[in-house]
Specification:
- About 5% of the residues have low confidence.
- The strands form five sheets. Strands 9, 10, 11, 12, 15, 16, 17, 18 and 19 form a nine-stranded mixed sheet that branches. The protein has a four-stranded antiparallel sheet with strand order 5-4-7-8, with no helix packed on it.
- Helices cover 21% and strands 25% of the residues.
- A hairpin with a 2-residue loop joins strand 1 and strand 2.
- The protein contains seven helices and 19 strands.
- It is an alpha+beta fold.
């Protein structure tokens, strides 16, 4: 018998009634179906699950590994305990049932130079402060408040919406100190009025401190104020018939310009972020 005939006989032996027999399993011998994990993500933009959890602010990346191993984290409804598992930013990731936001919170302090806008880019395409911090983050960082184009000094950027909202609240008690240059010498009687409080738009504006700058002309003053009302410093002096021709914010909520040249930026330290978050 040839090899070909032998192979044909083997094939024929597996037939019955002209069709192949279906493979069957005795009871108890069928394959065990396992709960399938979500398909591992191969997207180049995917990130490790522990980093996703850490970026959300829940815990450190090392602690995230512990929580993942314990089954505290789900991806699209399925608990994941695999170390190194990757997810996309569009996946639904929950920690103990709470939906997480994977965007890492970032905080950047800029010493704003003159002639840069802090509002949405104007029609003439003037220079905007966002261009000065373009290399600071891949996330979109927005200034917490505004400085006029001709103003200079400290400007805080973040993608932390909760903190930004809190700092902009009119009752937050956020300390700000400005170095001002007026269009004329400030009279002592007007300095006293400012110390007592000046009414602007039917609301009393009180300052924590105001004083002349040592060794400078009387038209240069330093003022400490906690109000978050828009352009409140300029409007305060307008009430007393002065024009602020230069404004430089030198302290913002405990942050200073130390070692931060004009036009440069830096990241906030962990402690500085904690201090800002303690402001109610």
């Amino acid at each position: 018998m040839s090899r070909g005939d032998s192979n044909n006989d083997k094939k024929a032996s597996g037939r019955q009634g002209g069709t192949f027999r279906k493979k069957s399993y005795a009871r108890g011998n069928a394959p065990v179906k396992k709960n399938a994990l979500p398909k591992q993500n191969s997207d180049p933009d995917s990130i490790r699950l522990n980093k996703y959890v850490s970026n959300s602010g829940v815990c450190s990346r090392r602690d995230a590994d512990i929580y993942i191993a314990a089954g505290n984290v789900t991806v699209n409804g399925t608990p994941i305990t695999e170390m190194g598992y990757k997810v996309k930013l569009t996946d639904e990731v929950k920690f103990d049932g709470r939906l997480l936001n994977p965007v890492k919170k970032e905080y950047v302090l800029l010493n704003k130079p003159k002639d840069f806008s802090t509002t949405i880019r104007d029609e003439k395409g003037k220079r905007h402060v966002s261009g000065l911090i373009s290399n600071a983050s891949k996330s979109k960082l927005l200034p917490v408040d505004k400085l006029d184009k001709e103003d200079t000094g400290l400007l805080l950027f973040t993608n932390d919406g909760d903190l930004s909202k809190r700092l902009k609240s009119p009752i937050n008690g956020l300390r700000k100190i400005y170095h001002l240059v007026l269009d004329k010498d400030l009279r002592s009687v007007d300095l006293a009025k400012i110390q007592e409080g000046v009414v602007v738009d039917e609301k009393l504006v009180k300052v924590q401190d105001i004083s002349f700058i040592d060794g400078a002309p009387k038209r240069e003053v330093g003022i400490e104020i906690y109000s978050s009302r828009g352009k409140i410093v300029q409007r305060l002096f307008e009430q007393l018939d002065y024009t602020v021709i230069k404004l430089d914010r030198v302290i913002y909520g405990g942050l200073t310009k130390k070692d931060l040249p004009r036009g440069h930026w830096r990241y906030l330290t962990d402690q500085e972020v904690i201090n800002l978050k303690m402001i109610k």
